[in-house]
Amino acid sequence: MSRPSPHSKGAVAPEGATALHAPPARARRRIRADAWMGYVLIAPALLMLLAVIGYPLVKAFSMSLHKNILIRPDLGQPFVGLENYRNVLQADYFSNAVFNTLIWTGTNLVAQLVLGLAIALLLNLDFPGRALARGVMLVPWITPSVVAVLTWKWMYDAQFGIFNDLLVRFGVIERGVAWLGNTGTAMTAIIIESIWKGTPFVFVMLLAALQAVPGELYDSAKVDGANSFQRLRFITLPVIRPTMLIAATLTTIFTFNNFNAIWLMTEGGPLRATETLTILVYKRAFQAFDMGEATTVGVITFVMLLLFVIVFGRQYVRSQMES
Amino acid sequence: MNLFRNSILASLIALAVGTAFAQAELDVWVYESVWAADAPIVAAAETFMAENPDIVINLVPTQYGSSSYQDKFLIAAQAGGGPDALMVDIAWSPQFAAIGLTMPLDEYVDDASGSFFAGPLETVTYEGSLYGLPFYTNALGMFYNRTAFEEAGLPLPEEGWTWEDFRVAVDTLSKDGMYGFGFQGGWGGTFEFYPWVWQTGGDFLTADDMQPAFNDEDALEAARFYLDIVTNPDYVPEAAKTWKGWSELGAAFANEVIAMYEVGDWGIGIVDGMEPGFEWGVAPLPMNEQKASLVGGANWVVNANTDHADAAYRWIEYVTGPAVFELMDGYNRLAARRGAAESQAIVQDDPRMQVFVASLDYARPRPTIPLWTSIDYDCLQPAFLEVILQDAEIDAAMAEAELCALGILGR
Amino acid sequence: MDRFAGTARFVRTHKLVPMAVAFVVCFIFAIPFLWMILTSIKPTSELFSTPVRFFPEQGVYWRSYVEVWNSGNFDRYFFNSVLVASVATFGSVAISILAGIGFARYKLIGSNTLLLGVLLSQLFPLVLLVPPFYTTMRDMGILDTHLSLIIAYVSFALPFSIWMLTGYFRSIPVELEESAMIDGTSRLGAYVRITLPLAGPGIAATLIYCFILAWNEFLFATTFISSPELRTLPIGLQAFIGQYQTDWNLLMAGAVVTTLPVVVLFVFLQRYLVAGLTAGAVKG
User: Fold this and answer.
1) How confident is the model at residue A225 (pLDDT cuts 50, 70, 90)?
2) What is the pLDDT of residues B213-239, one digit of tens each?
3) Which chains touch C (3 or more CB pairs under 8 A)?
4) pLDDT tens for residues A3-14?
């Protein structure tokens, strides 16, 4: 019996399309009989995650309920219930951080999805040098974040940076602009770097998804007279929707908590213009030495992301069923 | 047979000697830039170990980063670990002491004031106790482009030059692509601002360290003067808004973008390394009612978690003792120990260092209360940045900063 | 095989168009990397000039690379990074293969919740996890060892790896294993001989992800490691950002040294990556 390859482009494996649904009854019965084996298999992963990450998470939650200001050991670490939460939620630096985080994450998300899709569509076409192009497109992902951020910081340099130099040469501006030093431009500048860094990952996921779209769907649409834009809208997009949702979820998570990309560029400045929640956490912990407030902001960040992931998860399950 | 018995005897003696000398092994953190295979500190450690065979010094170069060194020590010491002794920036000493991470040295030292300069000593004193020993120190001076001054026909800056002299120089030199002054605008310029307040006779906190004083009339006069200059787009380059480090200022100076900037003795190496194509010199800061400058530097502290308190103290006592003069010559830095001016070769040889040494006579450290960094970051810097970036009114911004400081101190 | 029939005819006769557009797009994305390389081959005196010079004036200055590799100790750091990243990758891939098979082949109570839960660790700001992590490593006595980094990296790579491989395994038909078992193979044998080889691309994709994560990680490396001889490449790079000055050309040379090996690894495994994400992403 020949072994069908799971990547044969013409086939849509039934198990795959209904991955989150229960397998057919006959198989289900057999699987349940030795379910214990399944638990054994996932045990190492779960134990590791629980021990190494579960403990710090619980500790952080607990710390957010206590007063803990390191430079005031005289105050001790009393339990204060939700007082930290009250203080943080009322602080104007908090609403500023939330606003910045939403802008930072939202812009990155939309830009990376749009660009990632466009580039994936482009590099899915057949032309010579395509393999090389795909390779080059992944360099930003491979570059260590410290390197990427510092290189961009150097390019943004107000005195000796290449961007200012080119803009002045082409007459767009008269003198070099301090991109990272002005409240109006700093956020845009760091977002551009982050888009550059993150788009390759989205691009790769979408490219893979595009390649799995069955050719017959296009052929039959062609027969029905659909043009390429209609094919894109009614076939391609719906089929790759699950992948787009995964890419969106992961991008949101990575971007929301991204510390390096902002810290090394502006440290959250100027005047808190680029201060996101994760920068705020760092500052409360290591500059104000207020561990109670720092963990509180951390917990709030966690909850925000959790809600987001749950919403995305539901969308994803629904989209799986539809496709 | 004799040989055999002798060797047994020798081994037994060695064993006895070895166990009698229980060795204390110390982990000692130093800044990465201070350490290299052949750096002076390594030689100093070896001399110390020769004189103290019961102690082994293990120098651990640790990276400075943007605040990595401080964070790393905080995390380690909070967890009960960390090095036995370490050098720290003077700005962090009060905080580490307040948190309880460093050990008070009162049982070892009675009165250190005769041994060290007053300014640095203040930074290791917390609530009346001594929490470390001063290592090296520096004061802010003004680098100036001598060629530019001479070509503009300006008198060279020297001891006793005034704010007005400074303002005239900045104004005259700001032409033909050069700017009169540069500063770390990325931080709002608060670092360079300290001496200006003291020069008017004002201060940042009241004498009891309980109330902000930087919005009082004389300090406000300094703020107005300083901010008027740095917000003038002809006097200071746009790029200064992003400058947060000394290499950027050094590069701007060496490339004739700025004619003057405030910096300490560490700047000498940076600018020399860039091989500027002009003559330059060091001047003391301009004066107003009085002369003033800002003290910087590093101290040696002992980790409160250490198991080898005595040994750790002996190390820091040695490295800040009379041996420090020769050690600091190796780094082109000034020791914080009294007698540095007379004993250090670099002071004798380099007239630029002499200016810095002279400035130490009237140099003060930033306020040493642990809450001060919060006031600096959260109140002063934003006020300055608002004036610089958003054209805020100086008086209003400083009044707001005062309220902010009251809030922090009230906690 | 062309996807857009109408466009396909155009493209077939005008392959130049996508090629040109792709070239422009790739060039734009490559600019920072090119600038990194150009900066690394300039001497310090040429870094700060207005207007900016693109190319080194006096010939290529290789000294930065020599200095970085020798006195910058990058040969040592390179070795350390290879060691840590390889072991961490092996660990993550192994554990996530087990977990992936567990989730994919067995009906477990609340497996969807568990899969979601696995992702939870990524939601918390990393900065706050550092102190408790440090305490844990200290209690285990493995501070200032590569093992502490390996454990941390495996934990952080697991969530995505498990997601990837679970999806991938789910897309491989159960019948393949069943038919092997009918022929007498044990269940375990079926997994090893049938499922794993078919999952090759997915495993390759996971492998690359884990490797990049471990290779580029900075925060934990700088916190756990004190001994200079144990440092990894990202820490080595930090050294060029001094207290008083940044040596841009050395930093960029170090950056090229840090990035190039992964580029090479990637180019080698490139086809697997794309193919590997196919079933894993879409079906999982």
Assistant:
1) confident
2) 999 999 999 999 999 999 999 999 988
3) A, B
4) 333 333 333 333
Query: Which residue range(s) make up the domain with A213?
Result: 82-322
Residue C103 lies in a domain: yes
C246 vs B245, B257, B275: nearest CB: B245
Domain membership flag for residue A315: yes
Least confident window among B205-214, B232-241, C180-189? C180-189
**CA–CA distance from C156 to each of C99, C120, C153 (Å)?**
15, 11, 5
B-facing residues of C in 121-180 (CB < 8 A) are 130-131, 134-135, 138, 143
Interface contacts A/B by beta carbons within 8 Å: 75
Asked if residue C62 is part of any domain, the answer here is: no
What is the pLDDT at residue C176? 81
Q: What is the mean pLDDT of residues B398-403?
A: 96
ipTM of the complex: 0.84
Interface check C244 vs B, CB under 8 A: yes
Assess if residue A34 is contained within a domain: no
| Mean pLDDT of all residues in B123-132 | 94
Closest alpha carbon within chain C to B249: C245
**For residue A236, is it left (φ>0), alpha (ψ between -120 and 50) or beta?**
alpha
One-letter amino acid for residue B238 of the chain: E
Is C96 domain-assigned? yes
Q: What average pLDDT does the segment B167-192 reach?
A: 93
CATH code, domain with C275: 1.10.3720.10
Q: What part of C 255-274 touches B (C-beta under 8 Å)? A: none
* Domain annotation covers residue A152: yes
Q: What is the pLDDT of residue A29?
A: 39
Q: Is residue C257 part of a domain?
A: yes
- Portion of chain A with pLDDT greater than 70, in percent: 88
Q: What mean pLDDT value characterizes chain B?
A: 91
> Nearest chain A Cα to B177, which residue?
A175
Q: How many domains does chain C have?
A: 1
CA distance C51 to A63: 53
Asked whether residue A32 is domain-assigned, the answer is no
Chain B (226-245) residues lying within 8 Å, Cβ to Cβ, of chain A: 237-242
Domain extent at residue C126? 72-283
CATH number of the domain at A188, please. Answer: 1.10.3720.10
| C76 contact residues in B (CB cutoff 8 A) | none
pLDDT at C216: 86
Domains and CATH numbers, chain B: 24-139+295-364 (3.40.190.10), 141-293+368-410 (3.40.190.10)
Report residue B126 as tokens: 């917390």
- Identify the CA nearest to C12 among candidates C20, C4, C21: C4
Residue A299's pLDDT is 93
